[in-house]
Amino acid sequence: MRRFTSTVLVLSLSAPVWGEDLFRQTFDDQAGQSAFVHTWGDVPATVAVNAVQPGIGLNGTAAAHLRASYPAEVAHNLSYWTYNLPERMPLVPQLDTVSFRVRTNVPVSIKIGLSPFGFIYHGPGVGASEEWQQVTLKSAYEELSKWCAGGGKSAADGFVSSVIVAVANKAGTNADVVVDEIALEGPAGARKAMEVEVVERRIRRVKVAAISLVWDEGHRTLAETLAALDEAGKLGADLGCLPQECVYQAAEPIPGPASEAIARKAAEHRMYVVGNLREQEGDKTYVTSFLCDRAGKIFGKYRKSHRLPYEDGLALGDDLPTFATDFGCLGMKIGTDHYFPEIDTVLRRRGASLVVWSTKPFPDRDEHYYSLTLRGRAAENGLFLAVAQYAGEKGYGGYADQFSWTASWPLGRAQVLGPDGHTVADSGHRGGVALATIPRSQLGGSPRDGGYGTAGKFALITSAELPPPPTRGEKKVIKAAAIECEGDFDRLIGKLDECGKQGVDIACLWEYVWYNTEAEVETNKERNRGYLARLAEAAKRSSMYVLIAGELENGFNESILFDRQGAEVGRYTKILQTTDKSWKTYREGDRVGVFDVDFGRICTKICADVGSPDIDRVAGLNKVDLMLLSTQDAGPYGERIRLREASRCLDNGYYLLRAAGGCPETDHRSYLMDPWGMFLAGSQYGVSNPPLITAINLDNRPRYYEWPEEVRQAGEYPDPVKRGIPDADSLKMYGQYNRPVANGDLRSVVLQCRRPLLYRPREEKPKE
Q1: Which range, of 663-677, 679-693, 694-708, averages the lowest pLDDT?
Q2: Fewer CB under 10 Å: which end of the chain, C or N?
Q3: What is the 3-state secondary structure (H, E, C) of 37-103?
Q4: pLDDT band for position 731 (cuts 50, 70, 90)
Q5: What is the DSSP secondary structure assignment for residue 703, as one 8-state letter?
């Protein structure tokens, strides 16, 4: 923000004496740069010029020049050429005019981009003229404020982020447009008002209260829920978040008595509230989160859209909606929805900057699992996550003496997590209210209809049909090896032979670069093919699979898999290429690198591919056993790398073998991670490591758990005392008693319960 203020001061030196410039771009210092970005409308057949040129502007100064030819057939007769302000400018009452000067052979008009809403204001225009004309939006604040209000937004939260030159282009038009002096102006004192508003918006905060209620029987009452909202309200919360089925009662319509009481409490404290109840509509029972505004109106609902097998008595909602609030866009999920990582991504793509997870205890409440996946989802999607769940009474479940007695107990820990995966607020295991204070500038967004695409390399995510599971041989326990950055090829072959002596089944090598220039692709080709032949011989000699990746042979980054006979199984072309795009050999991957081997199914990715979690999701949908990552990955920081990899292992159910090394940070190493996101082995820092070799049992995978039928029939409170254990025998409350039972492979069960049609953009979602 300090940079914005100084920019305004520098650019405002040319302000007229009767007023002040809030911003003025004269292009004098930008010769050769492209001023405009085509953002909407008819796409030109050719763009001869899109650059700042000297000597063509007002008074012989520089100006932005656009010369474009349009095809014989056009759909809109209009195209937007956007100038993005160096720093977006908050809407203030002192903003009088927004304008630019133009010399043009076609009609043009001014349009204003308003963030964070995604609105575009349509302003006046001028016709063609060889003379300079000024296109001006007068009474700018009033006009833009009305535009925001028409979209249900407040100008107090709005920014001018771009000025758009809208070119009227008919079929076959050759447009020649010169633009100068893009300006936002106001009266005397406007600049000071702007500086004050910049500071005010920088320090503005939103308070989010995630609430953990008491789970024990007799505590989930409307009175307890309203008391918790009173606590949040007295703390100044802008949003109160309640756990799943916050009132233990029969299903009722929403609005209904309980939801309306919660809404009245929202009005009393002038805060938004996300509540959650069982909802009755006709003969169907849903679990529903509902959103109350500051006036106490229930204006949004989300019905739990996914369920695991033991939840078969519930009806499901058919949408993943997002909702506008005065601090940003909000999404919701409920309970076991959390097992489906697509939901968080879809909500983000539909505009949410904050997702509220209302949940309750269910079988196998693994805190390790939730902690890692919550943090990973927040970081992966750039989201704030508010977690509202349950705790027990004091001492319940061993909290008083730090024992976690069984996997069935409430975990407490209402939490708010930030978009870096770090904890912003946490109530602790005893529960209560976790109050997070979030800079308002970090929230925002508006509801959209986004989702995963239905075509291309990641189309499997929205497909109704999944590939058949891998065919596994008799070998369930394999040995896997990671070989770090061994630059001496003879030593590399020696390390592969050492792997063979130890019975390794698959070895993953580092990401190599065997040429540095486009010319070396050809001059080094024979040498590099010789390297690959020697790797194939080593694979055959040791009867093991060998995977190598990097810029090896063909002028782009790829991985090559050799089988136990030294034959090439296949190649994967890196999707997020780092090879120079200007090379004539350049190529990007168009499929995820999934291969079947004799012990199961593997997937390979390379270095920058870690920037696409969709690769990992496709691997999970293919039921990949082992992900092989060959990388020179040196960033971001080590904690983020570990969080990223652990949460992806958990969400996608694979083992990860990472071949890295040679980086300056002490924790950028090679390692093997299991489907729980736990480390099985790791290399040492700063030394020439031998191969990292570890045995893994491919059947040792997370299981899906359910309560036994007798527990389910006795009610939803899994209290060992209620199951007939006398107080005198209280030690039986520990984990070996009254435990949920395993009933299948967790990943397989989750994949059967996905609803891929919901993950598509709304306009592509068929009616069901």
Answers
A1: 663-677
A2: C
A3: EEEEECCCCEEEEEEEECCCCHHHCCEEEEEEECCCCCCCCEEEEEEEEEEEEECCCCCCEEEEEEE
A4: low
A5: E
Q: What is the pTM of this model?
A: 0.83
* Residues 6+ away with beta carbon under 8 Å from 703: 364, 742, 743, 744, 745, 746
Residues 75-96 pLDDT 10s: 999 999 999 999 889 999 999 9
Query: Which 3 state secondary structure label does DSSP give 436?
Result: strand
User: pLDDT by residue (tens digit) across 472-521?
Assistant: 878 889 999 999 988 899 999 999 999 999 999 999 999 999 999 999 99
Per CATH, the number for 473-697 is 3.60.110.10
Q: Where are the domains of the chain?
A: 2-202, 204-456, 473-697
Cis peptide before 257 (omega within 30 of 0): no
C-alpha 692/C-alpha 703 separation (Å) is 28
The answer to whether the beta carbons of residues 210 and 414 sit under 8 Å apart is yes
The pLDDT of residue 369: 84
Domain 204-456 matches domain 473-697 at the CATH topology level: yes
- Among candidates 592, 480, 449, which has minimal Cα distance to 545? 480
Among 107-121, 188-202, 398-412, 459-473, the minimum mean pLDDT is found in: 398-412
Q: Are 305 and 317 in contact (CB under 8 A)?
A: yes
**Helices in 581-662 by DSSP H: which ranges?**
613-621, 638-652
3-class secondary structure, 349: helix
Fold of 204-456: Nitrilase/N-carbamoyl-D-aminoacid amidohydrolase (3.60.110)
Asked if the 2-202 domain carries CATH number 2.60.120.260, the reply is: yes
Q: Using an 8 Å Cβ cutoff, are 279 and 288 in contact?
A: yes
For residues 293 and 298, give the distance between their C-alpha atoms in angstroms, rounded to a whole number.
7
575 within 8 A of 607, measured Cβ to Cβ? no
pLDDT value for 730: 55
